Amino acid sequence: MQRFMLRTSCFRRSFVFLPVSLLILAVSPVYAGSNTDVTLANIQGEWAHIKYQLPKKQRKAAFRKLYARAKQIRITHPGKAEPLLWEGIILTDYAGERGGLRALQMIEQSRKLYEKVLEINPYVSHGAVYAQLGNLYFEVPGWPLGFGDRDKARALLKKGLSISPDGLDANYLMGKFLLRQKKYREAARYFQRALVALPRPGRAIADTGRKSDARKILEEITQQLNH
Fold it and tell me: How far, CA to CA in Å, does 87 sit from each of 43, 60, 158, 216?
């Protein structure tokens, strides 16, 4: 059980000591037929490639370059929620790969980006920002190092699920949260829901990677419960 918990629940120390990447949401663009649609689709595809296909030693540099592109998209499309959302997603992943105290500052910046999304359009990309913020609140260390807060995390994750009850990411991240609380049977149910989530158009790499992660964790939970 000790090895299992080390593999799945020691993220709070990652920002300070280890360059461990956070598990990040994948969402689809909503500006159909616009230049933003095409650009964000490219950003999303590159994000999935970096996260799930690149060797770990190459990810930090790749995320740094992708973050610069995402930031430029946000600047050139002021007042749009989804460019803000994706800038936050990529910055969070970049921070996770970078690690150290600087990563905590970057994560704080990500939180501010998500809060702006909530002000503009909290339902963009099926309410993905709620699950994303919830993920931050339970992955980031608490005071005095960070702003981590289990109660806020739970409330945000539940809100995300209320908007996207069958969503891959919403269920996966709730499963992670419950796993952290050692509520293994409850966590397993959410991972199972994540595994049967419908495929998202244009998101094959992200869907495959996220479901592969869910399957591995679910197998470990099942083995532990059967002991």
Answer: 10, 15, 23, 28
Task: Provide the domain limits for residue 208.
Answer: 2-226
The residues near 74 (Cβ < 8 Å, ≥ 6 apart) are 80, 83, 84, 86, 87
Question: Quick one: which of 77, 91, 68, 97 has its CA closest to 29?
Answer: 77
Provide the token pair at 202.
């244009």
Whichever domain contains 119, its CATH number is: 1.25.40.10
Say which residues have a Cβ less than 8 Å from residue 145's Cβ, sequence separation at least 6. 15, 16, 104
The SS3 of residue 167 is coil
DSSP SS3 for 81 = helix
Query: pLDDT tens digit string along 154-166?
Result: 999 999 999 999 9
User: What phi and psi values does residue 141 have, to the nearest 5 degrees?
Assistant: -60, 155
Number of domains in the chain: 1
- At 63, the amino acid letter reads F
Instruction: Give the model confidence (pLDDT) of 107-139 as tens digits.
Output: 999 999 999 999 999 999 999 999 999 999 999
Shortest CA distance to 25 belongs to which of 209, 178, 202? Answer: 209
* Residue-wise pLDDT tens digits, 1-27: 433 332 333 334 344 332 333 333 333
